[in-house]
Structures are given as structure tokens and as C-alpha cells.
């Protein structure tokens, strides 16, 4: 007997349809999986066998062949277990599973991993699978109950959640009623809820706060330079609290990636707040970019639509910094493995921090720097080229002053800064309506020309700065974009000289050290 079950596989963060065909024929007991299956899929054999027996059903002691079609696409992971088990039971005429016995395909897409006792365990990447399957026209799904919350955010599907093989079998056989999942409405998460820090706790540091506000408003990357203990990490942690709320589409993109990486919190179901990722400088290149033997998204993709915070930037191996080029330019990362090339989204705001020199005290008012000029130069040159060129705002963070630290005055809270950020973002949404880009930071060259027209006075100021500070062409573009954001924060249509002047002040590394 032959049965066919609809299932789905994952490639990158997209799902692809897989048909699980099970053939049972007379012969010595034997189980074979064909169709480019990896070890985890091949091991389905043991799990499926035990799960069927331990659920009290008959396991056919015959020749079982499972084919995963299309045969030329690699299948990974245990997510085919449930479909294979149901397929076997459907193909075995001794089991009471109607509908399949005629050999026609089931009306459900069946997804789930099995444990030996017949429990259905959650699978990675369910959300992207449902989204892909919905566009392919599939309507009805049987999924693991642990994935239910995640699935509830996808509208327009009939989804049945099961926690065991027997529940799935009895439901398909019509002996058990299961209510389809109720679709949930998305509510953007408050950064506060996530325990994000609030700027009201950061005393003083007006300049750094201002730079971070501009960064949030225009989607710009920031580098903070300052001695240890000056509050750089604290400032970075506060940054997500002033970013605009995620839209549902953004949240789905983020959730897809986290789901595929197996980092989704099943109790939340959807990632509703912007991610904040802080990979350590000792992290491997693969963990940053993704890929590896079991291709999975890396830190920079997990930071998609959120923040990637690189603390102690010069400590990261040059090779890692080089790899950030592509994502910083076009918001994606392509990772290649032996036979497979996958592209993951990686559109994040980069917040980086570093000491001004190896000892950390260069430029300090209170402490003495012990480094030689060549040591400082060597330290800074590690981040020159690849990264520095792609950072719009350089900001120096000094040690917090005692008076600031002890001041009674209330610091502005994140909510109030966020309101200004939201306003500036609204202006950009209008400006870039119908275009691919949504932020000033990502303006193309023609867009920069069009939206960053300068008055004669502003033009003159920029020229003077450009010539005196020997700025690069790239720095020139960065200044225009940042000035555009500063003008947006002020609600000004025109970029004024003061906006240009402030933007130039954020290019300190271009002129100071290198
Ligand atoms: N401006 C500030 N206001 C309040 N506390 C601060 C400030 N700057 C630093 N601190 C305190 O000092 C600690 C160390 O700061 P941190 O952010 O780790 O510095 P850095 O990353 O620059 O080395 C913080 O956790 C915080 O308690
Ligand atoms: Mg720090
Ligand atoms: Zn030093």
C-alpha cells in the first residue's frame, strides 16, 4: 500500500513543500528513507517505530520505504517524524486510519517531531513554514501544540495543534474533535517589558544621548569611544527603548529568523520587541554570520530589525569585521556551505563601543594615558577601513562627572525621547513612500542627492569642513544623511547650517587619529 502526506521543509528562512510517500510491501522487516535526508531525518526510523508502538498501535513488520519528494533538495532535522508515522499507519491496512488507505494525499500539512513515547515535540521554523505554505495555497495544518502560540499569529489558516501521535491519529480518523487555533492580533511589545534599560537612569552624557537619539531617528550606526566605566554599555542597553515599535511585518520577519534558529520563546510565540544582540568578540565567525553544518542564522541575523551591539570593537578579529560589510551595505548575509547557499536577512543598527587606546585613558581629563602614538595608531587601525566607513556617528563618551552623577535633577526618560524619534520616522515614511528604503541612513546615492539639497550657506560650511578635515567621499555622504535626520528631528524641511555643523561633529575619528 502507498500513502502520501503533505509536509514541509526549511531552506534558510523559507519553507518548501515536501511530500512524504510511504510504501509498505511484503518482505522482511526493513525501513528505508530515501530523498536526500540527513542523519536526523534518517533517525526518524527509531523514533517513529517506538512512538507508534508506545501509542498502542500496530507497527507493520514489513518492508517500509519512505520517500521524501522532491528528492533533489536536502531535508534536515526531525520535523518529518509525525508525517512519516501517520504515513506508515495510513499505508498499513491493519490500522484504523481512514482517508489515506485509498492512497490519495491527505488534506492536511502535517508537521512535528516525535519522542519515543509518542509525544509530539515542537519544531524549529514553524512560523516561516506556515507563511510559505499559506502562499502556496495550503490551508489546513496539524502542528505540535508547543508551537501553537507562534502559529496563532498567521491569519487565514485552519491549524490544529496536537500533543501526541495518538491525538493526531484519532483526530484524522474522525474519533477526536479538535478546535482550530484562534488567530491572535499582534501587539507591539514595549521595550520596558523586556527589561530594557531606560535613559532616565543614565546621568549626564547629554552628547552621547543626543547621538543615540539621532541614530534611532534615522537608522544610523554609532560608535562610542570612551574610557572603561564611562557608561558605554549602559547607554547601548538603553538604545532599544527609544526605537520605534515594530510593525507586524517586521515582527514576523524577526520571529521567522528566531524560529529557524531555535531561539523562539514558545511562551511568547512571536518576537514583539526589537532584538538586542551582544555577541562577544571571542565568538566564532560562524556564530556571527550563520551557516555551519546545520545551517542556522547567526547573531547578525538574530539582530535583524533590531540592534547589534559590539562592545570593544577592536578586539573582534579582522575577519569578523570584514564579514559585516555585506550586511551593513544591503541588510542581508549570504552563507555558503558545501552544496547549499542561503541568504538570511541581517538589517540591524550597529552600536559599537571601544576604548580610545589600549590603556583606555587617552583624552581623559583625570587619568594619564600610557600608550605610545604607534600603539594608539595600531589599535585604531584595526577598525579603520571596513567598519568605520559604515558608521555614521562617532561619539566620544567621557567619564561621567561627579556633579552629574550626584545631581538631583531628573533625566529625560526613554518614552519622551522615543516620541521625537517616532515623529522623525514618520517624516521618513512619507518621504520614502513607494521606495524600498525607509530610513535616512539607507538612502541611495540618487535619493541623497534628491532629499539632501543644501542652501548656499550650508554648502559653504560643508566645503570648508571637507577641505580642512580632509574628509573622504564616504564621510561626506554620511554627513548629509545625518544632517537630514537632525533636520527631521527638528521638523525642518530644509537642512540648515547648524544641522550640517552637528553632523560634522560626529566624524571625530576621521580627523583625530587616523
Ligand atoms: N552616566 C552614568 N549614570 C549612571 N551610572 C553610570 C553612568 N556611567 C556609568 N555608570 C555606572 O557605571 C557602570 C559601568 O558602566 P559601563 O556602562 O559598563 O561602562 P563602559 O561600558 O563604558 O565600560 C554602569 O553599570 C553604571 O552603574
Ligand atoms: Mg562596557
Ligand atoms: Zn592609553
Instruction: Tell me the CATH topology of the largest domain.
Output: Rossmann fold
Supply the CATH class of the largest domain.
Alpha Beta
Give the overall shape.
elongated
> How many alpha or pi helices?
22
Strand order of the largest sheet: 11-14-17-10-18
Question: What is the share of helical residues?
Answer: 25-40%
Q: Largest sheet at a glance?
A: 5 strands, parallel
Structural class of the helices, strands and pairings? alpha/beta
Q: Quickly give the CATH architecture of the largest domain.
A: 3-Layer(aba) Sandwich
Tally of extended strands?
Answer: 18
Total count of domains: 3
Task: Look at the structure and name the CATH superfamily of the largest domain.
Answer: P-loop containing nucleotide triphosphate hydrolases
Rg estimate, integer Å: 28 Å
* Ligand types: adenosine-5'-diphosphate, magnesium ion, zinc ion
Ends apart, CA distance between termini: 74 Å
Mean pLDDT across the residues is: 88
Q: Low-confidence stretches at least 5 residues in length (pLDDT < 50)?
A: none
> Proportion of β residues?
15-25%
Amino acid at each position: 500500500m502507498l500513502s502520501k502526506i503533505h509536509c514541509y521543509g526549511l531552506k534558510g528562512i523559507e519553507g518548501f513543500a515536501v511530500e512524504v510517500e510511504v510504501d509498505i510491501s511484503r518482505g522482511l522487516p526493513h525501513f528505508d528513507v530515501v530523498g536526500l535526508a540527513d542523519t536526523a531525518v534518517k533517525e526518524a526510523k527509531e523514533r517513529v517505530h517506538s512512538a507508534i508502538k508506545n501509542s498502542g498501535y500496530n507497527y507493520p513488520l514489513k518492508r517500509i520505504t519512505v520517500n521524501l519528494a522532491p528528492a533533489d533538495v536536502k531535508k534536515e532535522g526531525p520535523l518529518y517524524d509525525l508525517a512519516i508515522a501517520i504515513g506508515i499507519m495510513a499505508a498499513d491496512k491493519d490500522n484504523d486510519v481512514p482517508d489515506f488507505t485509498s492512497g490519495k494525499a491527505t488534506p492536511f500539512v502535517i508537521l512535528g517531531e516525535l519522542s519515543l513515547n509518542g509525544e509530539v515535540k515542537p519544531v524549529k521554523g514553524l512560523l516561516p513554514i506556515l507563511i510559505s505554505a499559506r502562499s502556496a495555497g495550503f490551508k489546513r495544518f496539524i502542528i505540535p501544540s508547543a508551537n501553537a502560540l507562534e502559529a496563532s499569529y498567521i491569519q487565514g489558516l485552519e491549524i490544529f495543534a496536537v500533543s501526541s501521535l495518538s491525538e493526531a491519529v484519532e483526530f484524522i480518523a474522525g474519533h477526536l474533535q479538535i478546535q482550530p487555533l484562534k488567530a491572535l492580533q499582534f501587539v507591539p511589545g514595549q521595550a520596558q517589558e523586556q527589561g530594557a534599560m531606560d535613559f532616565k537612569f543614565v546621568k549626564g552624557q547629554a552628547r552621547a544621548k543626543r547621538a543615540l537619539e539621532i541614530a534611532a531617528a534615522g537608522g544610523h550606526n554609532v560608535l562610542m569611544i570612551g574610557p572603561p566605566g564611562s557608561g558605554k554599555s549602559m547607554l547601548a542597553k538603553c538604545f532599544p527603548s527609544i526605537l520605534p515599535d515594530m510593525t507586524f511585518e517586521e515582527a514576523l520577519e524577526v520571529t521567522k529568523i528566531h524560529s529557524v534558529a531555535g531561539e523562539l520563546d514558545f511562551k511568547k510565540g512571536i518576537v514583539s520587541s526589537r532584538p538586542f544582540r551582544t555577541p562577544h568578540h571571542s565568538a566564532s565567525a560562524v556564530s556571527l554570520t550563520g551557516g555551519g553544518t546545520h545551517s542556522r542564522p547567526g547573531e547578525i541575523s538574530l539582530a535583524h530589525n533590531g540592534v547589534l551591539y559590539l562592545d570593544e570593537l577592536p578586539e573582534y578579529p579582522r575577519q569578523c569585521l570584514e564579514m559585516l560589510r555585506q550586511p551593513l551595505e544591503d541588510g542581508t548575509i549570504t552563507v555558503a556551505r558545501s552544496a547549499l547557499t542561503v541568504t538570511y536577512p541581517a538589517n540591524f543598527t550597529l552600536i559599537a563601543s571601544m576604548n580610545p587606546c589600549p590603556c583606555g585613558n587617552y583624552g581623559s581629563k583625570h587619568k594619564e594615558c600610557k600608550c605610545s602614538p604607534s600603539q594608539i595608531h595600531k589599535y585604531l587601525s584595526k577598525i579603520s577601513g571596513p567598519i568605520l566607513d559604515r558608521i555614521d556617528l562617532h561619539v566620544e563618551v567621557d567619564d561621567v562627572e561627579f556633579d552629574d552623577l550626584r545631581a538631583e535633577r531628573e533625566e529625560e526618560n526613554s518614552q519622551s525621547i522615543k516620541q521625537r524619534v517616532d515623529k522623525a520616522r514618520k517624516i521618513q515614511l512619507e518621504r520614502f513612500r513607494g521606495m524600498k528604503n525607509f530610513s535616512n541612513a539607507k538612502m541611495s546615492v540618487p535619493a541623497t542627492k534628491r532629499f539632501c539639497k543644501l542652501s548656499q550657506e550650508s554648502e559653504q560650511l560643508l566645503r570648508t569642513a571637507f577641505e580642512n578635515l580632509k574628509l573622504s567621499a564616504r564621510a561626506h555622504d554620511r554627513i548629509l544623511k545625518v544632517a537630514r535626520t537632525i533636520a527631521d528631528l527638528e521638523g525642518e524641511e530644509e537642512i540648515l547650517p547648524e544641522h550640517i555643523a552637528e553632523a560634522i561633529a560626529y566624524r571625530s575619528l576621521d580627523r583625530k587619529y587616523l
